[in-house]
Write a structure and sequence with these properties.
With about 70 residues, the protein is mostly beta strands. It has strands at about 15, 20-25, 30-40, 45-55, 60-65, 70. The protein starts with 12 loop residues before the first strand and ends with a strand.
Length: about 70
């Protein structure tokens, strides 16, 4: 994506308490603050505290597994 281009252009978004933009079509949004950070070999493990949750009961949840999306339930 070219620098300065709005990646959310044309999509309905909202901001979490922290100011992070999210897509309105998402089923759940968690706003978190990092409370611990643990360097582990070539990665970093973050432990966070959830500060706000927004959710909807509309739509079907998806899981991303083995490079594919899968619907949950029925």
């Amino acid at each position: 994506m070219p620098a300065g281009e709005d990646r959310f252009a044309g999509l309905e978004t909202f901001e979490l308490v922290s100011g992070v933009p999210l897509l309105r079509a998402g089923l759940v949004s968690l706003d978190c603050r990092v409370v611990h950070r643990y360097p582990i070999e070539t990665a970093t493990l973050y432990v966070a505290q959830v500060t706000a949750i927004q959710h909807t009961n509309e739509g079907s949840p998806l899981v991303y597994h083995n490079r594919l999306y899968h619907k949950l339930g029925g």
